[in-house]
Amino acid sequence: MDKRIVISRKLPETIISPYVNTYMITMWPDEDKVMERSSLLKDVSKADALLSMLTDKIDKEVIDHAKQLRIIANMAVGYDNIDVDYAREKGIVVTNTPDILTETTADLTFLLVLATARKFVQANRYIIDGQWKNWSPFLWAGTDVHQKTIGIVGMGRIGEAVARRAKGFNMDILYHNRNRKDKAESELGAHYVSFDRLVEKADFVVSMTPLNEHTKDMFNEAVFKKMKKSAIFINTSRGGVVKEKDLYEALQNGEIAGAGLDVFKNEPINEKHPLLQLENVTALPHIGSATMETRTAMAQLSLENIDLVLKGKKPKTPVN
User: Nearest CA to 205 among 182, 222, 178, 230?
Assistant: First the structure.
């Protein structure tokens, strides 16, 4: 056992047990708290492999401390938390966990569509708080989802999975993506449109785009002003694609009807976050892929990638 794996968050013993007799494993002991920066820098200096979370900032400083690091296995689809280009310069493989969480995240995304449209969270809180005294014909009346128009920005694997769910609700499907998706168009009846047309026409604007220099703050004041006043904005991609101040003002001023958010620019947020003060916001704590089955499979794939690289083989899901 001459090779060391550092794991930046506590994982179940059943997941790491197949590797404990092969590698030295250093694991952050807390499941709910981000690994402290000082501990990350210290532990990675002796590591051959790092299993990181999307909450870990793996920048040049970390990589420079990692004198013998061969792989960074990110337990997420996205990897904007990692300086991938610098890792490549240093000969470090970076992997992610695509495909595994596609259907699970699409379920959560469509849950937000339904919950925000039908004011589910607010109505649930209303009855729990003991406020339901009488039935009323327009009590917590929301808006229909079926036969409406959904606009998906970012038609990757998860975007296509969301479109399949939308088809089941007999929705018109618009999408915007860097490339046309012929299969989605032929099988799902999706229509490729410009970004501007999508935000103007969609009843539900769903962000599924990765965060990069081109998408940062792409949902801003100008975009929200183009949307229908009855439109609902959904984001299960990355918080950084939204200018939160602009979203807050659009919601507060009635420029759009509501928002369903699973991600925020700076996570975690607390109860004083401005968006949480608005009644027309449905918020979740970044749980897009949070099922036992999916998170277990993501951790297992991350460790499989590490094992392959440390044995001199190609990983299953490299990003660089």
Answer: 230
User: To 5 degrees, how large is the angle CA 234–CA 176–CA 143?
Assistant: 35
Strand order, beta sheet including 49-52:
24-27, 4-7, 49-52, 71-74, 93-95
Identify the burial level of 185 via C-beta atoms within 10 angstroms of its C-beta, where 0-12 means exposed, 13-18 middle and 19 or more buried.
Answer: middle
* Number of alpha carbons in the 13 Å side-chain half-sphere of residue 95: 27
CA distance readout (Å), 311 to 5, 283, 292, 306: 13, 43, 29, 9
Residues 298 and 223 in one domain: no
- DSSP annotation of 318: B
- Catalytic positions: 238, 267, 286
Residues 120 and 265 in one domain: yes
Domain that holds residue 56: 4-98+292-310
Q: Going by DSSP bridges, is the β-strand pair 281-283/4-7 parallel, antiparallel, or unpaired?
A: unpaired
What's the distance, CA 61 to chain centroid? 25
Domain membership of residue 9 (yes or no) is: yes
pLDDT along the chain (320 residues), means of 10: 94 96 96 94 97 97 97 95 97 96 97 98 97 96 98 97 98 97 96 98 97 96 98 97 98 98 96 97 97 97 98 96
0.85 surpassed by pTM: yes
Q: Which of 180, 207, 45 is nearest to 113 (CA)?
A: 207
- pLDDT at position 276, please? 98
Residue 309 CA: distances (Å) to CA of 69, 94, 220, 303? 11, 10, 41, 10
Structure letter (DSSP) for residue 177: -
